[in-house]
């Protein structure tokens, strides 16, 4: 079953998948200027999900947030419920300060993030499934706002559970964890053009050394490594899933020249571009 809300005037799109055997993240539909983000709820048994060619085990009674540029295939998609939305429907960046920790769910340091639900939370999520389904069958002036309100509820509930399950959030003050979260969100927005730690530090009103020290204290990889890994991941996605040339990818990712990109890719992936593309 697929039900959707499509607001022609603003290009806002919200889609609910339930028992959909064809549900996957290959060639995700895009509307307006932005692709679609996804919440996947597994109310049944554990199953495998392959995200960007890496296999993971999705536990039973769990939620998985997926960002718009990830490619994913589930072992049993018909056993899942998924909610998808584009930026025009609900902008993560704009709602970050209002909801709190939206970046933590979708752009956290540790990803993918499988958020486990207890019995009560699972019952509430099942109830929300029914409410979403009913609301998607209505066609009136309140439908879009009601769907946004329901999505916001899912985000807040999921965030609360995720923070309880994240050891770092239990051990360290919110101020430090918010710094990590804001860095992650900035990185997702700017990584194609900004490759230096000093840019992100300045945007966060910190020195590069202070920013690196916070990451070290929380036992996270340093900002420079996270920037590098994000660029490398995007390069691999483009090489694996698109027909773009290495030259096109190099300039899209902010490299001065294709040769510079080629050296970067070989150094940090352990493979040259042509070999990786032919795997």
UniProtKB/TrEMBL annotation:
Extract the InterPro entries matched here: Homeodomain-like_sf (IPR009057), HTH_AraC (IPR018060)
- What keywords does the record list, in alphabetical order? DNA-binding, Transcription, Transcription regulation
PROSITE patterns from the entry? HTH_ARAC_FAMILY_2 (PS01124)
Q: Which SMART domains match?
A: HTH_ARAC
Q: Which GO terms describe its molecular function?
A: DNA-binding transcription factor activity; sequence-specific DNA binding
> Where in the numbering of this chain does the HTH araC/xylS-type domain appear?
181-279
Q: Which SUPFAM superfamilies match?
A: Homeodomain-like (SSF46689)
Q: State what protein this is by name.
A: AraC family transcriptional regulator
Lineage per the UniProt record: Bacteria, Pseudomonadati, Bacteroidota, Chitinophagia, Chitinophagales
């Amino acid at each position: 079953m697929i039900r959707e809300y499509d607001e022609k005037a603003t290009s806002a799109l919200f889609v609910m998948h339930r028992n959909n055997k064809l549900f996957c993240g290959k060639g995700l539909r895009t509307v307006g200027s932005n692709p679609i983000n996804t919440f996947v709820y597994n109310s049944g048994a554990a199953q495998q999900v392959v995200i960007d060619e890496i296999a993971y085990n999705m536990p039973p009674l769990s939620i998985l947030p997926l960002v718009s540029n990830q490619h994913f295939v589930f072992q049993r998609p018909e056993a899942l419920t998924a909610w998808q939305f584009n930026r025009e429907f609900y902008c993560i960046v704009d709602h970050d300060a209002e909801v709190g920790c939206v970046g933590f769910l979708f752009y956290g340091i540790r990803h993918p993030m499988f958020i486990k639900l207890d019995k009560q939370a699972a019952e509430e999520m099942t109830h929300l499934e029914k409410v979403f389904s009913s609301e998607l069958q209505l066609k009136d002036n309140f439908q879009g706002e009601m769907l946004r309100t329901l999505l916001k509820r899912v985000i807040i509930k999921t965030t609360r559970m995720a923070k309880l399950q994240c050891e770092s959030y239990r051990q360290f003050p919110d101020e430090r964890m918010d710094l990590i979260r804001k860095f992650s969100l900035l990185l997702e927005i700017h990584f194609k053009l900004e490759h230096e730690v000093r840019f992100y530090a300045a945007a966060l009103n910190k020195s590069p050394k202070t920013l690196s020290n916070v990451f070290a204290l929380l036992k996270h990889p340093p900002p420079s490594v996270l920037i590098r890994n994000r660029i490398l991941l995007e390069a691999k996605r483009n090489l694996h899933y698109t027909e773009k040339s290495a030259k096109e990818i190099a300039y899209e990712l902010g490299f001065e020249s294709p040769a510079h990109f080629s050296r970067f890719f070989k150094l940090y992936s352990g493979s040259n571009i042509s070999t990786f593309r032919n795997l």
